[in-house]
Specification:
The structure is a single chain. The chain has a five-stranded antiparallel beta sheet, sandwiched between helices. The chain has two domains: 4-168, Transcription factor LuxR-like, autoinducer-binding domain (Beta-Lactamase, 2-Layer Sandwich); 188-264, Winged helix-like DNA-binding domain superfamily/Winged helix DNA-binding domain (Arc Repressor Mutant, subunit A). α2 (26-37) packs antiparallel against α7 and α10 (221-228) packs across α11 (232-245). The protein contains twelve helices and five strands. The chain is of the alpha+beta class and 277 residues long. It has helices spanning 4-19, 26-37, 64-70, 79-85, 95-99, 105-115, 148-168, 188-198, 206-216, 221-228, 232-245, 251-264, and strands spanning 42-48, 52-57, 91-94, 117-128, 131-140. β4 and β5 (131-140) form a beta hairpin. The model is unreliable at 181-185 and 269-277 (pLDDT under 50).
Length: 277
Amino acid sequence: MTPPLAADALTASLTAAVDALHGSGFPAALVRLIQQQVAFDCALLLGVGQRPVYLYDNLSHQRALLFERYLTSHFSQDPFMLALEQGLGAGVWTLAQVSKGRLDPEYRHHFYQATGWQEEVGLILPVRGGLTLMLFLGRLDKRQTLRPKERARLEAIFPLVHSLCRQHWREAVPLLAQNPARPDGTDLKGAVEQAIASVGGDRLTRRERQVAGLLLQGLDTEAIAQTLGIGAGTVKNHRKHLYGKLHLRSRAELFRLFLNHLITTPLSGAPPEEPAP
């Protein structure tokens, strides 16, 4: 039987999540509802269609890696993503289940060792045709591994979480990230310029970032070639390479990636990179 205090806390968390439905605060309220049942240090929520779309996180350690590496390339090595491509169904899944003990060494180094995650659980939440949510719950090295009773609590609350997600994301509209809040007084023009200069992170060369930035500003191949003083064929090669590195297929997907990058990347205060003469 659930102790009265625990039941009261669950009711309060559930009420907060229901009240937050269809508002920007829903993902955070949903994570608090889950954490009321099982303690985790970190949470990351993604929408998965053609590529992952950032929706929410509460990361406090090595957060920049999420935007600089994971969302631009390393998601393709994520065992949960690979398992989803192979038909992983709705439910609560542990890293051990989806990786089957064969974790890519490069991904282990760039994600688990870099972030300090020692335990990971994924909630697979199909919400409508073409869109599945993936909620990652992580523990840092100070916490013990997931116990059977904790797994049982997650599985017990999963139908409720799934239902809330279907209600919140039932409309077939493009996903955009939740803004993680910038300091007051942020200059929009400066934020856009910085986002254009940094889209793709260190996955792109300096020239590829310049081509990406000019594509985002609406320039065609000939205009980009004239601006950068290079041939149209060279521009096409750079575009092909940057699309490949960022797992994109079109300029429309580049714009979608940029919008989420703009919304979610904190300002560093550094000036944007100047185009090469």
